[in-house]
Every structure is written in structure tokens, then in C-alpha cells.
## 1
Amino acid sequence: MDPTEGVDGYTAEGYNNGFVTRVYPDGSYAWTVTFGQGDTNGTAAASGMGVAPDGGILLTGPFAGSVDFDPGPGEDIHSSPWSLDAFLTRLNGDGSYAWTLTFGGDHTDYGYAVGTDAEGNIFLTGTFLRTVDFDPGPGFDWHTAQYNWLGDQFVTSLGPDGSYHWTHTLGVLYTGGPQLAVTPGGDVLLVGMFHETVDLDPTEGIDEHTANDDPDVTNGADIFVTLLHGDGSYGWSRTMGGVEQDRGYDVAVDPYGNIVFNGYFRDTVDFDPGDSVDRHTSVAQNDCFVTKLRSDGSYVWTASAGSVHRDYSEYVAVDPDGDILAAGGFGHLTDFDPTCAVDEHEAPVPFSYTLFVTKLLCAERDGDYDGDGVIDLGDFSHLPPCLTGPGPTTCLTGCDVFDLDADADIDLTDFAGFQNALTSP
């Protein structure tokens, strides 16, 4: 597992085993721990990972058979007698073992993604079939899936120590669990895909959304983004999609509270979930997209790229400067620059699956358009074209350097702020 010149070898026991490897920021190797050892029929795989505020590591995924989740000399064996069950494991920051919780019913259930808020409370998503008790402690919280042929989706909240808080479930959201992100304020964002008509409010209220997919299109689906508050109460949902299959894969939150999510789409999609329109049309089959929303769910922008083959944007992250990193795979000649410029890349083997990482630069909101360290009339010359008033502005044009109040609108408030920031004639 050591990617440097050293050696740190491991041998899997049973079927699949999970692992966690830590690499320091300079690329040097730290350590690896493995889990999933058990009887010859035991298997475990980590499909999601999060980091707690104290540096603890949270892992979730499916397991089957009897599995020892303690990677150290001790044992903590959990069994899934029927099919796949979900697990949540916590490791300490040095890789030592803390605890594991498991839950599931008599069919396929698995954890998909995990994250924490600033207080260390844990949020976990995944899918389940039939009936499951989601309380991993001595209590009970039974939920029954609405549609067993696909499975329902769940989001579960736990305390930092694994104590149980609540679970909400959502039906008819298609295969694959939703990805999640937790905002600085402790709200939980879910992104994924759905079809038919879905009530995206998992509480006692109703917020129904109907997919635009064509009934004659096999596996048609639309994209959803849902916000839940940390106490489990409902916030809002936004949906978008066309007649084909469109999917949200991953979600992140930037330093200003804006929401960024990515995925793929096919054919023509209006990505603006509000009253305005922002249509994007795929080159041929699946194209990649990255969409930005404000913290209240209002629309900012979408960038898209694709080739004549199937292209997927599966992971997204935002760095401390607000710049966006998206990763996935593409299959043919693709222009990855969503602006008027061109940055074309060709897959080494056409119609294969070649990995990519794309960075979209979102400038610091200080008014210094030309980046010379001085806010002056040279910067001012670029401000008028960016004054849009209410409506989308984007880091793709460089205009958000003038978004001094970080509300994703360049307006007269920012103009006044820029005047105050002028440092030279």
C-alpha cells in the first residue's frame, strides 16, 4: 500500500477487504489499516469516507458474512446473516480503532456516503430494501421501503459517539445512494437522481417533484438536490433534467456557503430550477456538468463539457479559495474549458474511459481583477460588464472577483464596496 519506495504489503482474507491509507501533504507515506477479515465468506468494502472535526475517520459501505472490523490486534466481529448490511466504522486520527455500528434487514442494504458537522454529529446515506431497524443501539426505528424493486434511500443522523438521533427515508430515487455534504451551519445536502413523481420532503410535509424523463426512454431520470436541517427538519429541494437519464453524483460547499454539485446529463437539460432558463445540450451521449447554487437553492451557473462518447463527472471538491475541482472520466476528444477559450484533450484510446481532473478558478472576492495586488482603475474597467443585478454571475468569466458581499450577484452593493476598496487612482 506504500506508493513510495517503501513496502507495506497486505493480504486480503475472505472476499473483498476494506482499507484506509494516509498520505502526508508532501506525498510521503504515513500508514494503512485494513478491515473486513473474518470467515472465508466475509466481505466488506468502504464506499464513503468522512473526517470528523477531531481528525477521526468515518467509513461506511456494505458488508456480508462475519467480518472483524477492528484492524488492530483486537476483535469486533459483526455478522450479516441474510445479505448485504450497512456498516459505519470510526477510526482515530492515527488509524487506531474506535467502534463500528451495523444495521440492515433481510435483503440488500448499504451505506453510501458519510459526513459530519462542526460539532462532530454524523450523517450517513445509503439504500435499503424491505424493512430495516435503523437504530443501531438498544432502541428501534423501523422503516419499510416503498419500492423494493429499486430500494429506498435513507439519511441517518448519529451523535459523535454513534448514539442514534433520527432517520429519514425517500422512495423512488433510483439505484445508488445519494451523495451528501454538510454545510458550515450544520445543514445536510443530498444529491442524486429520481424518476416518476417523488415527495422529496421526508417529514410529514409534502414537496412533490415530477421528473421530465420520457416514459418511452429506458432508465430515464432527473437530478435532485435536497437540503435537510441538522435536526432532521426539511429545508428545500431543487430538481432539473430532460427526457433522458441525468444524474447528480457529488456535492460540496464553498467557503461562502454556495453549493456545488456535478454529474452527467444527456440530450438537452435546463439546469436553472427557477423561472429562468439555462439550457445545455450534450455533444452526443452523456456529458459532464458542474452546477453552482446559492445557499438558499437559487441558481448561479452551470458549466458542461463532453465528447461523442459517454463522459462522467463523478467527484467534486472546493478548495479554501473557492476554486472547484471536478474529476471523472471521458471517452473521446473533449474541450474541458467551459468559457470561450479551448482546452481540448483526447482519450489515449478512443471510446475508452480516461480519467480527468478539471479545475475551475473562482477568484478571491477583493476587486483585484488583474491580480496585480492593487485595486485601481485598471480593475474598474472590467467592472461595468459584470454588473448584472439580480441573476447569475460566474467564476468562469472572472466576474466574481467583484462579488464583494459573496451573494453570487454583481450589483450596486458590490459597486459601492469596490469604490471603498480603491487603493490608487
## 2
Amino acid sequence: MTAGLKPFGKQITNEKVLTWPYIIQYSIYLFERILLYYKDVNPTKHRHRIIGRNKEKPLTNLKGKPRLELKDRIFIANVTKIVSLSKTGLYLLGDNYSVLIPIGVGSYTIQIFWKGGSGVENIIIRFQSEEIMRKWYQAIDLNKINQSRP
């Protein structure tokens, strides 16, 4: 994954997440200077062809995992604001009122705003836990601060 990505800096973290406003699963990679998000190539859709050749691209990499298709990128220097929102899951009191039984899943999201080609753009990323959400928020915020320094 890191071949040819040296200009983006060191890879900090990566995760499989859901995004809004369209509920789509992406693999996101955070580097010091950029956030990249990819989607798995769907083997049931039309074959992806290499431009200028009649040879078809394989749908899996050498390790047998689905190929990734770059969907978008966010340059950290263009990030204007990050907002995190954490809502814990719902709980039901047990019979003796001393036990909380989880009945719902929490929601842990960050919303990233950046200067794009058509003005300010944003994406909402949902994480599986509050800990992962905090890790991403802190990493993006720290890189944003570092990119704004001369």
C-alpha cells in the first residue's frame, strides 16, 4: 500500500469505516499530509480495464484480497474543521435494577470539513468504538496543526 506514497508522509493509521451522507464502506488511510479513502472493487460489476490496453486488471491483489479503488482524497492542509460526536448505546435496566443490559449500539463519528474545488466540502465517518474515533480525531487534528506551521 505504501509504494509511491512517500510524498504523503508517514502512514499513521488505517481503518474500515462507514461514511455519510451515503452509507458506503470505505478503507481509509491517514498519512501525515493526506487522507485517502478506497472502496473494494466489486467482482460482480463490469471488469475494470487498464487504459490503453485490452488486458483486464485482476480483481484481487497478490495476497488474494479484493483490489482497492481510490474514491477520494483530502489534503490535511485543506482541512478547516473537525467535529467529533459520540453517543453511547441504549441500555435496559435488569430485573433487580443493578445490571445494565446493552440493547443498542453507540454512534461514534467525526465530521471533516475541507476546502475543495467547489467550496467547503465535508464527510462524516462512523467508527466502531469511541476509542478508535478519538484516535482518528487526535491524529487528524495534530496533523492539521503540523501542516499549518511554516
## 3
Amino acid sequence: MRVYATPRHVAQSVNWRRQLDDRVADANAILETDFGVRVRIESAREWPARRTGENASELAKELRDFDRGEDVAWVVALAGKVSRAEVSFRSLGVAYPLGKHLVLRSANDAAELDAIERQYTELDAEERERLYRKRKRHKAAAVLLHELGNTLGALHTRERDGLMYAVYGHEMLGFSPGNVALITIGLRHRTNGPSALRETSAEQLRALTEAGVSSWAFEDYERALASHRQYAPAPKGSPRPSPKPQTARRLRKPAKSAKPAKSAKPGQAPKAPTRPVVHRSVSAEPDAVPSELSQEEKLRFSAARRQKQAGDARAARKTLAPLVKKFPGVFEVQELRCQIALAHGGNFGWIRAECRQMKKLLHTSN
């Protein structure tokens, strides 16, 4: 792994190289357990990027143009800190799917510490400081592992303790079994040169069609199938995945997929994806419209969800507000309320308050 630190990252970090070493060491503890591999830092240096890191996707493109990474497994850029306490991976990093380039952003130390101090008032100052440092290291390693997973073909999971869940949580322990299988395939073909993308896509397509959608977030699953089919034909006899997992909940009808790219000519290696993954919030459950709602209320619920998915969290919150007040005991309504708050970002205490009712219902159902 070759690492570049932007000027903003260097200026905002105390001993950024030591923090990088700690992050990689913590990530290796998971990688060795699940895959028997370790990441080694080939070099780490300052990089005067033209962009400051506020737009991680643009920085990822600049990084890819600057260093193609032909002699290393990954090329990483360390960007400036986020402006507030963030728990959504979409704000903390981006990566090229089945590629080599990823951008990692640091947590906002002051905002994170303030959130812990307000959340854990029963702890004394020393205990809160110790918890903050522990959470900070865990979060840094989780972001690195999440983005490495994206470069190796892992998908967002519905399991909250899995590292590929869309929202960070301190309970994250490792990769789900399904993603362990996908990442193992990605690692096996990592050094195969021009044929790696085709071979990885063929095996991961087979694994996904055999496993079905139930292990992963539905939209990620559909997107991955479409992407893999560009580079590898579907294996003969493989069942077509059903958009409805075996559950009482109903899935939202997926949007029409974009027109697939042209296949590579015979004997010519396909081009790697050119857009980095930008994370979006993904529900832990399939999209569903609660049966307790009237037809008009169902339309309001669906509209709020579409607004959130389109990135307009403020409008989504306003649309959902009447349902939040009327249906405090309906899990899907309170879950969407929490997701909108996470997408909106801001004061961690406010986000926690918006998610409190969902957590209460979740614990009651368990």
C-alpha cells in the first residue's frame, strides 16, 4: 500500500504517520483473522494535491491520475477531517470498485469528543477520554477496512455489526460470511494483471447468484450483478436472483438500470470502473411500506424515502414529520426517521435523539 497525505491532513493531524501505522495495525488484526493476509505500507509521504479533500470523489480521480499504482496493491490518499461528527461511511471515504485507489477522511476529533462527553455523562473525564481514544482508533480502522472491502468486491450488508454496513457503529467486529467469500475471491485475483477484473467478476457473479439477495443491501446487490455481467457472462444453470427475499416485508421495485457498457473485444482486457464508490445510507431491512398506514400516508412515506435517497435529507425530514408524530410505534417509520437524521448529519446528540425511538422499538422486538 502506497499512502499520500494531503496538506490539510498533515496540518490537522498530530503525528499523522504514527496514526497511520496504528490504523493499519488494527486493520491487519481483522485481515489476518479473516483472510490470512496483512497490509504493508510501501511508503507514506506528503502529497500537494490540487484539491483540498473536501470533495473526496474528485480527490480520488486526481489520485488515480497522479499514481496508477501498477507496482502496489492499493494507493491511498489521506484527506482532511470531516466538519462534524459523522457516522455514515459515505462521508468518511470513497473507493474505486475492484480498483486500487481509495480516499480516507479523518474523524473530527473535537466533535467526536464532544459527542462522547454529552452521551456518557455518568463517566468521569478520564474514562470519557479513554473511551474517546478507543472509539477513534476503532473508527479509523473500520473506515480503512470498509474501503478496502469496496476495492475487493464486498457489498453493503444488512448486518449492523458487519464492517460493510453503511453506517459506522462501535459494535462492528468483522466482515459478514458473504463478504468474506467475495473478498477472498478479490484477493485471489489481485495480482493477476489485465485478466484480474474478468476473473474476479466471473467468480463473484457466480457467488452472488448462488447466495441470493438476502445477505446484502438490495440496491448494492442489483448494482453489483449488473456491473459483473459487463465483464463476465452469467454462469450456465445459475438461478436468476429473486428481488424478493423470503420475508414478509416487500421490496421497493428497483429503478431501471442504466444502459450497460459495451463488452470488451475478444482478447482485450476490460477497463476497470472509472467512478469511485460514493456511499449512500442503506437500510438494515428491505425497503417496505408499513401496512399500518393509509394509502395517502403510504405515498407520503415513499416520498420521504425517495427524497432521502436523492440526497435531500432536509425535505425528507419535513415530509416524514406527520408520520413520525402519528406512528411512534411503527418501526419502519422510526427507522426512516433515524436514517434521514444520519443522512442530514450535524449535532450528534440530535441524531441520537432522532434514532432513540427506533432503538427502543428494536430492543422491544428482540
## 4
Amino acid sequence: MYEYEYIIIAVLLLLISVIVIRINKKDFTIKINKLIQFLGGKENIIDVTKNMSRLNVKVKDTSKVDKNAIEKLGAKGIVEVDNELKIREDKENELVSELSKIKDALENKEIVFKVKTGASDKVFGNISKSQIADEIKKMGFNIDKKCIKTDGNIDTLGVHKVLISLHKKVEFFINVVLNK
């Protein structure tokens, strides 16, 4: 009896996956159709090439192109040279969204370091950005030490607020704790 329940669950998960894929494909198709419309229709498009961050489109008549509508669709900028449009895609929103997920997972977390101290609790050495990055990596996130900002040396016992700057729009603090 349990085997049938697993089979039913697997079939339901597969069905849900297919539905999600079709919805995303439908949204993509709608976006492409709008882009074609904003470029003046299929008849106006001569050639299309795509590279990393640009869509290059040769058109017959640039006056038929609705640049404002293309920008509202997600283009970061449009450069027109003769009858060719260079449409720059806006990938920043996707990047900020992904980095915000990291922020949500790490913000206000504590990283604890056990340190050796001398007389009157003076810490031997200090905690480096590389050490902080290594501890964050153990949490499952690979953050470059250049993204870690400190106010001087971390060389005293207690809690130290450390800024993590992944992007100009994604910054947050973690707590670095030095204990004996």
C-alpha cells in the first residue's frame, strides 16, 4: 500500500513540474511576441543576433520601433546605429535578487572564533577577512574577502559588526565574536 502512495506523490510532483515549466514558457513566449511587436512587427525585422548581454537587431525602418516599450519590457538601454538596434539586457535585477537570498540567509548571523589571549585578555593576532570568508564558506556561501568590510583590526574579545557588501544594493552585517 505504501508503494502506491509514493507513486501517486511522484506523479503529482511531475505534474506540478510540467505545469510550472509551461507557465514560464508561456510568459517567455508572451514577452518575445511583445518584443517583436515593439520592434515594428516581423516584417520590419531583418536580422537578429545575440551575445552575452546584448540583442542586436537590424530593422528596415527604425521609426516603427517603440524604444520606450522595449525598455519597459526589461532593456537597460538601446543604442541605434543606422538600422541596427543594440538592446542591452538588464541582468542587474536578477543578480540583486540572487544576492538578496544570500543576505537573507546570513544577515545578523554570528561567526564565533576561539582565540588565545595573554595578560589582561589581550588577543594574540587578529581575525582577517580571509578567516571570516572561510567561516562563511563553511555555512555554504562563497563570498570573496573583498566583499567583507571591517572597521580596522578585529583583535579584541567581544562582538564586532562586520559589513558584507555583495552589491551596492545588497549590504548587510554579520557579527564576528571573539571568545577565549
